[in-house]
Amino acid sequence: MADSPKQDDWTKPAAMAIPKEGFFKLEQGRYGPIFPKTPACHGFSIIAKVKPGREQAVREYGKNIEEAVKGDPYVLAPLRLHYLRWVLFDVGSGLHFQYQGIFDTDFDKYLEDAVALFVKTGITTVFVNLEGWPEDWKTNVSAVITFFREHQCPSFLEYGEYPYVSADEIKKALQLKAAFSNMLDQMQ
Amino acid sequence: MLEFEDIQHILVTRVPALTGRYEFLSFRNAAGGRAWLADIVEKVQSAAEVRASVEREHRWVTVAFTWNGLRALGVDEISLATFPEEFKHGMVARAEILGDTGANHPDNWVGGLASPDLHTIVVLFARDVTERGRCQAEHAKLIARCTGVEVLSSLDLEATPPFGYAHDHFGYRDRLSQPVIEGTGEEPTPGSGAPLKAGEFILGYPDEDGLPANLPKPEVLSRNGSYMAYRRLQQHVGAFRAFLRQHGQTREEQELVAAKLMGRWRSGAPLTLAPDGDDPELGADPQRNNDFNYKQMDPHGYAVPLGAHIRRMNPRDTAVNMNRRRMIRRGATYGPQLPEDTPEDGLERGIAAFVICASLIRQFEFAQNVWANDRNFHELGNERDPIIGNQDGTLEFKIPRRPIRRKLTGLPAFTTVRGGAYFFLPGIKALRYLAALGDAHGTECDSVKAQES
Fold first, then answer.
1. pLDDT of B42-71, one tens digit each?
2. Residue B347 and residue B338: Cα distance in Å, rounded?
3. Helix (H, G, I), strand (E, B) or coil at B271
4. CA-CA distances (angstroms) from residue A23 to A32, A162, B186, B370, B396?
5. Mutating which of A141, A145, A146, A175 best tests the B interface, going by the most B Cβ atoms within 10 A?
6. Which of B11, B166, B354, B421 is the most buried (most CB within 10 A)?
7. Nearest chain B Cα distance for residue A114, angstroms
8. Residues facing residue B264 across a β-bridge
9. Claim: this prediction has a pTM higher than 0.90
10. Cβ-nearest to A139 among B96, B212, B376
11. CA Rg, chain B, in Å?
């Protein structure tokens, strides 16, 4: 079940501290507990260790995704994203990879669609450089979903300057602004 | 090439039945259960048989098992472990995911369907009541001969007038949008999409993504099988009609509210093609009544509201990977018809239906969890499916309209889940394999064979 829609005032910035489990009340989704919507909308932070010697392969993938989005700017639209961040870091325990996303749908709901999209765009091929990635990922969607679930690190705090606002609402507001400006121009 | 002689007929054929009966059984004794199965398997028709004989047959039998049922028959733990998690859990354990909370909660279910003792379902479809009665008596005799086979409950199905077309107790024409399986030779009606790979519905074949991994083992058990989610959905006809009267002054206005909730007029005519008034001829014409999309024809929901039942259960070109979410629906109505202008009589009536698919979690559970019960589907904010969603009187239904939309608030529940279960629908060879498990075959059942029914 979805969280009840937040009626919070978008003009009032808000922060939310989140329990260690990543949720306040255990609510079962199809693949596991549902993570709550926060002032920073939905999101995930997938963190996994990079296989030795694979740093360059991971870095080069940045270019591939850039090209994929250039080729079809709406290729990632089904993920209902705000932002994605891809980070490589080593704080002394080996090279780690972080894939952090902020989006408007529940992590659990569209997992199969996300995996299908990752396969289609080649995003999954970057994951083969990570430890723990299932060998049979091409045919075993549930193993891929398990990997994401197991490597998701829930936030303990999230903040929104304009809380709970969806990407669609932002785009609609900007379109309205553009249409309004255009209307004023036409009236000159 | 599909193995029609091994696939249970319910997967690919719709039979000309006006009545039916579901019996829910429990096996207290594995050998008794296998003896029962060894007998009834002779009456379970394959798709090939039904295709050849449907005109002269009078009854059609389907058999399927819960995970507990497979164990009760003696399937070993290694094999049981290879079934998917959601099937192992069963529908009761998945209640929260499915929206079966509040009045829909398994605690309120009837017929022993929420019990772990539910092991098998026998689905009988019959041409008429006489034939149903005859089969029912034959089956009772078979059960009496088999040790430890117990009937938990049963449900009689009846079509209601007018008999010329399938419809539910609310009066909506049904069975208008069914996927077609590639290789069956069937032609999809215009608008229904191309035939889908068999693996979307039948185990052992490639699906829309290729050859699926991790099918249940051994192969003889899973091949040509499928999964059936059973739903017994009570329809509150009195409450539904009262709602229409409350929100429509005239007959025409009431029909429009009914059409907006569904996305089709009760005649079956889709609002995308008949936005301003009913067109019964269109509703009855399979060449036209499903030939529409949403992205081009109705992006804002001025015809079919974004939260209408058919737009949720089949978002067509507005959902990604739509081909991986399709489901085959079978079933029938039960309970007496509530005549027009008759007050609610308190009798239970509804739909007892099966959703058949290769993956309960990806197809059936997704549809329940996301399409039917996600309050924020299509950014609607505070809605669930007006017909089958979990409604507690606090949600709304928005009808886009120019210049401003109409919002119906405090939607009551027009349906209540009265029971359900996840079944595995084995192929014919798998039924024989199950019947022959162990060495007790034939010893727990009177050796006199049942008269052919």
1. 999 999 999 999 999 999 999 999 999 999
2. 9
3. coil
4. 11, 21, 48, 19, 27
5. A141
6. B421
7. 10
8. B270
9. yes
10. B212
11. 22
